[in-house]
């Protein structure tokens, strides 16, 4: 199974394409969609959508996993994050991909073993678990961790009992 994993944000959206064959998971491609500070919000949303569509066209994933909503105290930040997330999810939905959502604490717990893990711990564990030669930057590591969480959640014999169904 091939998966597109996303950690969307307006300026730096992490992405990962992972593939699982049997028990083996490997990273096919990962990185960060970067938008310049000078680019207005609408331009950023278009660019996020365009680059995710390109990833989908090139890698043909069968599903999409995304980080769930996070609590933020600043309304403006929440709206901006929601817009970036919507742009990313629209690209996946337009290609008919089922979309799965994972809470940030669940992702940290799945990859590091505790829900309050730091960014550096996530990057280190992702590198270790996937056998990467370099430590991915934080946003890409988060996307890789979301993908690993998806595969973990859907490989367990108890996965059928879990309520994690596509959005």
Q: Which band does the percent of strand residues land in?
A: 15-25%
> From the 3D coordinates, which CATH architecture would you assign?
2-Layer Sandwich
- What is the rounded Rg? 15 Å
How many beta-strand segments?
5
Biggest sheet: strand arrangement: 3-2-1-4-5
Number of helices: 5
Spatial separation of the terminal alpha carbons: 19 Å
CATH class: Alpha Beta
Silhouette: globular
Provide the residue-averaged pLDDT.
Answer: 91
CATH topology: Nucleotidyltransferase, domain 5
Number of domains: 1
Description:
- The chain is α/β, with parallel strands linked by helices and 167 residues long.
- The chain has one domain: 2-Layer Sandwich (Nucleotidyltransferase, domain 5).
- It contains five helices and five strands; from the N terminus they run E-E-E-H-E-H-E-H-H-H.
- It has a five-stranded mixed beta sheet with strand order 3-2-1-4-5, sandwiched between helices.
- Strand 1 and strand 2 form a beta hairpin.
- The longest helix has 20 residues, at 75-94.
- The chain starts with a strand and ends in a 12-residue tail after the last helix.
- The mean pLDDT is 91.
Features:
five-stranded mixed β-sheet; Nucleotidyltransferase, domain 5; 5 helices; 167 residues; alpha/beta; globular; 5 strands
Topology of this protein?
Layout: E1 2-7, E2 12-21, E3 24-34, H1 41-59, E4 63-67, H2 75-94, E5 99-102, H3 104-111, H4 119-130, H5 138-155
Parallel strand pairs: 1-4, 4-5
Antiparallel strand pairs: 1-2, 2-3
């Amino acid at each position: 199974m091939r998966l597109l994993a996303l950690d969307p944000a307006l300026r730096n959206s992490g992405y990962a394409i992972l593939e699982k064959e049997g028990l083996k998971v490997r990273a096919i491609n990962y990185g960060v969609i970067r938008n310049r500070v000078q680019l207005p919000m609408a331009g950023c949303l278009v660019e996020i959508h365009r680059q995710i569509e390109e990833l989908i066209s090139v890698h043909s994933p069968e599903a999409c996993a995304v980080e769930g909503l996070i609590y933020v105290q600043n309304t403006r930040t929440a709206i901006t994050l929601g817009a970036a997330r919507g742009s990313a999810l629209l690209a996946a939905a337009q290609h008919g991909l089922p979309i799965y959502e994972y809470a940030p604490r669940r992702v940290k717990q799945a990859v590091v073993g505790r829900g309050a893990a730091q960014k550096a711990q996530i990057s280190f564990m992702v590198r270790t678990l996937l056998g990467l030669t370099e430590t991915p930057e934080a946003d890409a590591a988060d996307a890789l961790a979301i993908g690993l969480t998806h595969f973990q959640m859907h490989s367990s014999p108890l996965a059928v009992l879990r309520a994690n169904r596509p959005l």
